């Protein structure tokens, strides 16, 4: 355990927590006691949750709403306006939650508590680390920086782990994390979770990485029997953030951890976002503003190659995006909602959004993706058996990647090009050549089919229907025995039932 000097602690308090965030990184909630106030700082990765609510006796801070409610006998109520927003927006993350009176202390912010006031200040922002992209950067230097920071971060995060379990999907990002575990000297093991029969079989790719790194590897198949759609793994949280099919993923990882005696779960989650995997023209627009028309056309060529379209088409899309001035709306889905619920609710602002004036379009998109990644492991049940680590979302990795121009990440028509080059000597050629990978859509659809009758009952007789928030006739039609349901709508119905189950769990407690 590291001891902090009194002078350093005083500096952290005097700076409102900013010196702490700029000097140290990790998974932490820091409580700093000043002369007349208390300062609560949440690290920029947001790895540890932090919620707060006011009471007659002061402020309650907790890692989830259930602990806070139980400890302080807090009155709790559903915030139905926020539920409407949860039904519409995808991956939203603001300080407001779906329980009235509960707020989240967002990643990279500080809560100042005194007798006079309670206020939140932003300590960390992604825009500070972009740097001067107008000066040329050598691709080799960028790759070396990424390699060093990923390995250093993985080594630090796993230093207290006896045997980490790498959740290797067969894709580029989890393969890079596994290679970093090898360079860090970890005594790691690997697991690959197989989805449904219609999902792409990632086991050959994953095994090649584990073999190359010298780690024992085990495949585990998901089982629809491990999914209980009447249970919400977010039951203690103040928003319905859990996905039903993730219960089976947790169970598979827990099984592998028990069999291989692992004490931590290491994920490549967030790599698509952090490693600038953009399937759009924004890198070309960034380069146009930084290096002019010649650089712009070179990146248009890279993007055409990467996306499998003609250069003329890539150029057309780039020009069209250049001429569009309206901001992109937050990702949303209003399908299966009642007609008067389809009007998009305005979202409260996030400290990182909107971007400051003059911010490059690629950096604006990067910041949005960072917000979308917040809290992705918060409802993971496997955290009960060991810490869940996401090295690619750690502060040093994000800051390093932000400093590298967006167009270098699609160089020579390869997505995540800098990251691939950084670990090219450690990864099998078939991994380095991959442009995409499978997912769990087939398994999620199997979960839907198995639970179709129960989903019908839960949605048509549940709180959402009673509040007239659903398009009841369309939900009823889709869930009848003969209706054809697409993968997209099946996932939507599973999301709606996850919100319904979360509501039921809280309504039962509130009486």
TrEMBL record:
Q: What is this protein called?
A: asparagine synthase (glutamine-hydrolyzing)
Family classification: Belongs to the asparagine synthetase family.
> EC number(s) on record?
6.3.5.4
Reaction catalysed? L-aspartate + L-glutamine + ATP + H2O = L-asparagine + L-glutamate + AMP + diphosphate + H(+)
Instruction: Name the InterPro entries on file.
Output: Asn_synth_AEB, Asn_synthase, ASN_synthetase/amidase
Q: In which pathway does it act?
A: Amino-acid biosynthesis; L-asparagine biosynthesis; L-asparagine from L-aspartate (L-Gln route): step 1/1
Q: Ranges for the Asparagine synthetase domain? A: 145-503
Any Pfam family: Asn_synthase
Q: Where is the signal peptide?
A: none
| Organism domain of life | Bacteria
